[in-house]
Amino acid sequence: MIARALSEGLARELGQPVVVDNKAGAGGAIGIQEMLRAAPDGHTFAVVSSSNTAAVPAVNPKIGYHPVKDFTAIMYVAAVPWLIAVHPSFPARSYADFLAELKKNPGRHSYASSGVGGVLHLNMEVFKSLTGTFITHIPYRGAGPAVTDVMAGQVPIAVDSPTSIPAIKDGRLIPIVVAAPQRMKDHPNMPTFAEVGLSSLNRMSHFGFVGPKGLPRPVVDRLNAAMRKVLQEPAVRARLEGAGATIIASSPEEFGIEIKELYELLQRVVVERKITPE
User: Fold this and answer.
1) Could you tell me which of 183, 180, 163 has the C-alpha nearest to residue 172?
2) Residue 7: CB partners within 8 Å, gap ≥ 6?
3) Which tens digits make up the pLDDT trace of 22-76?
4) Which of 26, 119, 179, 237 could pair with 55 as two cysteines, CB 3.0-4.6 Å apart?
């Protein structure tokens, strides 16, 4: 969604077509590896999330790249909340009742996420540790299929980023709790993790652009400037903010720091929770 929101404006600013090429698989690693094989000339770069800059390499050091050593950070574009939602048939519609249900029936319920080793998976491992609950993880190849199965009642709980917001708006999913600085304007009854006593989980996921190692600084600066200009367009801002994103539009250095800090944090989570690639 972020790639498509910016692609038309980037094409105009850069004076050449910008093609969005979706490469699913391995928590985004397939697309990342293709980007890293490209020449460091600015013609191939990747949209990345907290999953492929931090969570996936933290869980699987053999994934084929190191997010700090192998990426050239270009821009932290937007921060996106993540949330827990349930199918309408789930026997809870508030966070207090949700937690009580999990504690009353350990191991009975399962949750769908966008994949093993992604940031949502790691966040839920921390959630289970902090709350003393047990929920079975059902990984999918991407957020779309995961949310679709929860809406169909195949899995009772969705752990997701804004993919699920349209389903929440029309009642196909019931929101439980969200990681965001404050409650979402359109969902004032959904508390933040901070409000329910889980401040360490109240960190939004990052989305941004990176290039391969060795991308020349003039190229990085040109791409960053073009992205910054596009992100000032009202239509682009409305599209991103309408999906629940907070626009950041950082410098390359700021995004590099964000990647490094989150990667090191999730490495500690992996060790503490003894998480391994499944």
Assistant:
1) 163
2) 18, 19, 20
3) 987 776 888 999 999 999 999 999 999 998 899 999 999 999 999 999 999 999 9
4) 119
**179 found inside a domain:** yes
Per residue in 230-244, pLDDT tens?
999 999 999 998 878
Share of the chain above pLDDT 70, in %: 99
Rg over alpha carbons for the chain, rounded to the nearest Å, is 19
In the structure, what pLDDT confidence band is assigned to residue 278 with cuts at 50, 70 and 90? low
Backbone angles phi, psi at 46, to 5 degrees: -125, 145
φ/ψ bin of 66: left (φ > 0), alpha (ψ from -120 to 50), beta (otherwise): beta
pTM (predicted TM-score): 0.83
What was the pLDDT predicted at 28? 80
What is d(CA 273, CA 259) in angstroms, rounded to the nearest whole number?
21
Q: How far is CA 69 from CA 36, 53, 57, 66, 161, in A?
A: 12, 11, 12, 5, 27
Domain that holds residue 138: 82-201
Rounded distance, CA 205 to CA 258, Å?
11
From residue 247, alpha-carbon distances to 169, 187, 238, 244 in Å are 22, 19, 10, 10
H/E stretch holding 247: strand 246-247
- On whether both 74 and 105 belong to a single domain, the answer is no
Q: 139: exposed, middle or buried (C-beta count within 10 Å: 0-12, 13-18, 19+)?
A: middle
Residue closest to 73 by CA, chosen among 266, 253, 262, 231: 253
Q: How many domains, the chain?
A: 2
126 and 187 belong to one structural domain: yes
Average pLDDT over residues 108-133: 91
Residue type, 17: P
Residue 278 lies in a domain: no
Residue 166 to residue 201: CA distance in whole angstroms: 23
